[in-house]
Amino acid sequence: MSKSNFTRRGLLKTGAVTGAGLALPTIFTSGAAAFTNEPTGDTVTFGFNVPQTGPYADEGLDELRAQELAIEHLNGMGDGGMLNTFSSKVLDGTGVLGKKAAFVTGDTQTKSDAARASAKSMIEKDGVVMINGGSSSGVAVAVQGLCQEAGIIFMAGLTHSNDTTGKDRKANGFRHFFNAYMSGAALAPVLKNAYGTDRRAYHLTADYTWGWTQQESIQSATEALGWETVNNVMTPVGAGDFSSYITPVLNSGADVLILNHYGGDMINSLTQAVQFGLRDAEANGKNFEIVVPLYSELMAAGAGENIKGVYGSMNWNWQLQDEGTQAFVKSFGEKYGRPPSNSAHTCYVQTLLYADAVTRAGSFAPCAVAEALEGFEFDGLGNGPTLYRAEDHQCFKDVLVMKGAENPTTEYDTLEIVEQTPVDQVMYEPNHPMFGGDEASLGSCNDGA
Amino acid sequence: MKMLGLSKKDTTFLLIVIALTLLTPILLQPFPASSTLAQFNAGYPDLMQRFAIFGIFAIGFNILFGLTGYLSFGHAAFLGVGSYSVVWMYKLLGYNVVPGLILAIIVSALFALLIGFVSLRRSGIYFSILTLAFAQMCYNLAYSVLTPLTNGETGLQVYTNDAQVLMGENSPTSPHFFGIVMNESATWNVGGWQFVFNNGYYFTAIIAILVFYLSLRIFRSPFGLMLRAIKTNQTRLNYTGINTRPYTLAAFVISGMYAGLAGGLMASMDPLAGAERMQWTASGEVVLMVILGGAGTLMGPILGAGFIKYFENIFSKINDQVLHGWFAFLPDGLENFLIGVSHFFVGKSWHLTLGLLFMLVVIFLPGGLVEGGQRIANAFRKRKSGGDDAETEAQPSAAE
């Protein structure tokens, strides 16, 4: 057998060292920072937490491009992009509050757990003061909760579920992107003009939080027009094959199919619906129609020809003609050789909005930043006049109704803008029943340790 | 010296493990905070907690896979069940983790009993597929069917209007162990180094040591011997008149309880339970951990768990910007070439690096990292004592 050098002396030594090790935490207490990760050096670090692997990796990559661009513009590199058109003029390209802006990146993998792990490492290891990005409502809600507990600001990326600023709203979390309720409110009048008031809708819905809130929103908006809802069928996420869900649609008495799907699911279900001849079919004496309430450039590119003439909604599109959009598309295009996506835009804007709020507040302390963002009205960031509402930290601005282009000239203009729905039409009360009702509350803001 | 019913060698081994575990915050922080190599430091609370928690998960999995050879592809289900139990206890009772952890172990034991009872009627690949099917069933139930219980894809969270009947006025508002708040830490700055001693880490570490001791006892017990006999030749055992099923079921339930405890601890560190914790990828991950570290060894699973979590959290964060920082001193052409090459192995491509390492380990070190350690130790020992001492093991392992 082996010869062990284990002695009483050795044990005493080990014991003493272990004891000392255990006692250490009580001797050395944490420094007296005013808030979590107070930046003390000459740089301030932002955390860009986006999906780099998994189903939304392409969108994550585009978000990252936009965030890098935002950092460049904040530090005075490049042409300044939307800083030139932003209505608030406190950002002058010298960093944020005199500190150079830096960033770290993480991979959310489009999973709440992985996203929280990556966000935690940014907070605990890299000392970030703000986390931005993401491409899923589940992830956004999870990371928002984490930032609330840790005492830093969360600037949500692409998240469309009502819950993010509804029942799961948090004092430290802010959303610039629009939501499912707004999609419904913006789409309804367009659908009424295009398809009339006497329609019967059949919903296929992704079976999770985002799908439900969107289905609920669209159903209530279309029923207000006088449409009838024939059926709502839940489909598993990532099903791949939707043929068994689409077959019954034609004989159900419905004449509109609403696809509450996103990403790859939407590409598959739309493609299959078109292959099954739904677009060419007639029901109740009318042409059969398909609606995809939430569009993204990526999905449009994936669905190809099938998307022609299909209505949907977006937060922003690069084809808009206002000054801010043009400035952003120009500097993004010059750097990366392609127009930015919807999700890239929201992440870019969120980063600028955060930096602007910090500068106006004169502090990185989350509560001061939150106060500066609450009720903030701005313009020049591509969506027209916008309000960051204080009650639920949701941005209110015009919503775009889109349609699959009939004759796209490049791979980037597969969608065309049908209408810019004015903000008044998509406004709702903070205690709207779809947003958690009276029970939903932001809680109080948290500065952390 | 013998202690706690362990042999001399095991006692030493246990003490080494205890020392390593308690000193983790220092050992994982080898580079000063300001150096460029600080990127590789892993001594921050969240990752250390993950090391301990996935260590527990892997130790438990190893009791089933390492000893009986039954390869379960559904252990993530217990992990998820454990997490949901703990968060529900937060919602109903309050933020003390103890009731939740107890419930997590009980509930995961019941689940394991049920799943094991059905699945263990088959062995080999059929057993693996059955467990996989059960786990995916649990995942889908949690994701979209039982949403009132699990809150679906968003994950179960604590809301301000939850009952929390045991919450006093001054109770902490985040998970705690009788007042010791998990996410509080003490920081120790020495020279350029910064060491973080986190309550949550020490809580999980102490539990990890306890369950490690338990698994050590199981490995050395007649019960453990019986499990190993099942792995070696189950048919022969059956012919000698021994009914092996109670033993395998017991092993399955024990490892399920370990997984439930690990899941519970995850929710104790971070009060959220998501359905993807039950996905098959999570089940596969623990299999990788055990095989990478060394199946059937005591230390292997812990090493494997640490290895994979380190890659997931450290390598995935090395982006092109960081690479530029490292290679900036090189001439431009060379710099871009090196970045182009490294690009495929770090950042979002960390899976590739891990996959390559996994292949290398499986091909050249079938016994996992533990075998690698033993080979190195033996090589040194041979050199020192002239090669006559090769029998001595570096670590007491239950080699197959």
TrEMBL record, chain A:
Keywords (alphabetical) are: Amino-acid transport, Signal, Transport
Which residues are the signal sequence here? none
Supply the Pfam families for this chain: Peripla_BP_6
Q: Per its UniProt entry, which superkingdom is the organism in?
A: Bacteria
Q: Which residues form the Leucine-binding protein domain?
A: 43-403
What is this protein's name? Substrate-binding protein
Q: What is the lineage of its organism?
A: Bacteria, Pseudomonadati, Pseudomonadota, Alphaproteobacteria, Rhodobacterales
